[in-house]
Amino acid sequence: MTKQARHTKTKRYGMVIDLDRCTGCGACMVACYAENNVPFRKDESDKMLSLNWLRVFKVDNGKPFPDTEICYIPKPCMQCDGRHMEGHSPCVSVCPAVATDYDEPTGVVSQIYTRCFGCRYCMAACPYHARKFNWWDPVWPADMEKYLNPDVSARMRGVVEKCSFCYHRYQKARDSAYVEGRDEIAENEYQPACAEACPTRAITFGDLLNPEHEVYELSRSKKAFRLLEKLKTNPKVYYLTAKNWVRRKADNYLEGESPADRKPAHKAETASH
Amino acid sequence: MSTQSDNQPVPAENRASGWVIFVFFLIGLIASLISGWIAFPNLLYSTKQQPIDFNHKVHVEQMGGQCNSCHFFRDDGSFSGQPTLDECKSCHMYPMSNDPDEKKFIEEYVKKDKEVPWLIYAEQPPCVFFSHAAHVNGAEMECGTCHGDIGQSTSLREYQENRITGYSRDIWGYGMLRIGEARHGRRHKMNDCAECHLKETGSKGDCFQCHK
């Protein structure tokens, strides 16, 4: 009883998504829906009303046919560290109910559905549209309720939900470590459903602070970038690409706002995308 | 005449009215206490009996004195909780005593191959992630610290269910005001978890430590 809690070593779980490997197949989205009991509607044609914790976006370079290039960007919650890396992420700082907070030991931004009262300030604050609002109670077709994941609580009408990096898998991995008397969990013990489902292995997941984890090197590579880095939200989701136009789109400046635009020498190059 | 009446002692009927006020106060107080201690809990909680009156004491003695003979950890670290019918059947395929409850168990559940719908005293709401492994293996806590000395009981106590929330009364605790020692082990509300965590680990913990 007096023994201190183990697993105290601070971790920063993060994801590196190789956009040059992503084919846009959507297996990660399907895996996420199934794993996290994300409700869907009978008619999913209006994507404004869809709930999804992970969504694959499609961007193109805006050029006509022979030069058209397409890139798919899988976009989970970015689990922002905040400007000073202390967990002051946009959503956490605005929540009036403390329904979302920054999990210090892992760096995951939590969302507690029973605490949330649905004011949606967090959705307004999130620059990544990572948060979704339950406008209706979930309705599961036929027997599907029996297939829900018991490790993830189902949400009700009137609350906000978002990607948790499959935190329940971290909790389960910790449980087995406790029973086996280990202090640390291995890299492959905690992997979110999307990373496991990706057929091209575009999604890599692990502790960004641990040099033994694959994401450590990948997130520090020259090809790595993050979405909207100008906002200084310090996301823990990194993207890799060799295509410059994708990297420019990720920091979507308004016309004339980009630092590159201000330098006349680069103007011709940036205008071409 | 009038000045004389000022010095007169208080008439007898005025003193009697003081008693009347006291009696009414007393009636009000007793009514409040009855409603707070008896009527309100009975209104809020419904009482249910367990399907089988289970004797923990006999089983602990027969199974080697350990809780984990029946309430064990699975290989992946998850906690098994209530034993399933298969685990009970490994001994109770046929009656082992003349106990009427054992007979009932075999007739109604073993022969019909039906799971016993045990009412779980410490069952948490579905939004809670509670790690038995972290508490039993990590913090080396005794089962009885939270669950009370249920292992020494010869009969199962009644189960009380909150009519509004559907949760067990053990979550809030049996004392309506939640002061003093809890009656069966510890109370299981979030604040009770946080209080102990603050004392033992120096932090109440982040939301995701206990929520899912």
Please sum up the structure shown.
By secondary structure, chain A is an alpha+beta fold.
Q: What does the model show?
A:
The complex is a heterodimer of chains A (273) and B (212). With 273 residues, chain A is of the alpha+beta class. Chain A is built from nine helices and eight strands. Chain A has a single domain (13-242), classed as 2-Layer Sandwich (Alpha-Beta Plaits), CATH 3.30.70. Chain A has helices at 27-35, 90-94, 121-125, 167-179, 193-197, 214-219, 244-250, 259-262, 264-271, and strands at residues 13-18, 55-60, 70-75, 132-133, 160-161, 203-207, 224-225, 237-240. In chain A, the strands form three sheets. In chain A, strands 6-1-8-7 form a four-stranded mixed beta sheet. Chain A is globular and about 55 Å long. Chain B is mainly α and 212 residues long. Among the domains of chain B are: 9-45; 121-210, no CATH class. Chain B is built from ten helices and two strands. The N and C termini of chain B lie far apart (84 Å). At the A-B interface, helix 4 of A face helix 6 and helix 10 of B.
Give the tags.
heterodimer; A: 273 residues; 8 strands; 23% helix; 12% strand; disordered N terminus; B: 212 residues; mainly alpha; two-stranded antiparallel sheet; 10 helices; 2 strands; 45% helix; extended
Provide a count of the helices of chain B. Answer: 10
Major beta sheet, strand line-up of chain B: 1-2
Tell me the structural class of chain A: alpha+beta
Uncertain runs of chain B: none
Largest sheet of chain B: 2 strands, antiparallel
Q: What is the CATH third-level topology name of chain A?
A: Alpha-Beta Plaits
User: Radius of gyration of chain A over alpha carbons?
Assistant: 20 Å
Shape of chain B: extended
Mass-distribution shape of chain A: globular
The tally of domains of chain A stands at: 1
Which residue ranges of chain A are poorly predicted, with pLDDT under 50 across at least 5 consecutive positions?
A: 1-7, 266-273
Q: Could you state the order of secondary-structure elements of chain B as H and E?
A: HHEHHHHHEHHH
H and E order of chain A: EHEEHHEEHHEHEEHHH
Termini Cα gap of chain B: 84 Å
**Looking across the biggest beta sheet of chain A, what order are the strands in?**
6-1-8-7
Residue-averaged pLDDT of chain A: 89
Share of residues in helices of chain A: 10-25%
Strand content of the residues of chain B, in percent?
Answer: under 5%
